[in-house]
């Protein structure tokens, strides 16, 4: 399990370098800053490798902070389920991440998933470009772009190495990670007992 987590952190480091490179080349276009939390209201799930990493960070927080986050996670989980049950375009659904504090600061910033790490710079998903609505990236101009599909393939491969094909391909809402859904809790316990793959 430790090897997978080390590789995950290496991936995070590479993303941080790519982000810094884009910010350096286009400082006027990257709007990310402390307290900006637009990306923290997007509806997405995470790979198993990211979920295990995020859960470990959450467990290191103080009991009062964990309780506060868990309360917010219950509300977010209800909103998630409602969105999943509806026919809404998930890209338009806004759910506040329960890991945000009152100032909009992520309480598990160091363990944030790939989607959070790439949100402020141009990305491509299924051949279509995406940028943060607050950014200054201009339509029609060419910018360095992060291919999220290739990052998701790496995350999938790490997750499969961690838990096997069937369990490794499953994705998790952040709320299920925080609230330790029975399925997630059982999976993490089995990984810890086996020492991971």
Kindly describe this structure.
52% of the residues lie in helices and 6% in strands. The protein has eight helices and five strands. It has a three-stranded mixed sheet with strand order 3-2-4. A two-stranded antiparallel sheet has the order 1-5. β2 and β3 form a beta hairpin. α1 (2-25) packs antiparallel against α5 (148-163). The longest helix has 24 residues, at 2-25. It starts with a helix and ends with a helix.
Whole-number total of structural domains: 1
Low-confidence stretches: none
* Secondary structure: number of strands: 5
What is the CA-based Rg, rounded? 17 Å
Spatial strand sequence of the major β-sheet: 3-2-4
Would you list the SSEs in sequence order as H and E? HEHHHEEEHHEHH
Q: What's the average pLDDT?
A: 91
Shape: globular
What distance separates the N and C termini? 6 Å
Secondary-structure class: mainly alpha
* DSSP helical segment count: 8
User: What's the main sheet like?
Assistant: 3 strands, mixed
User: Percent of residues in beta strands?
Assistant: 5-15%
Helix content: 40-55%
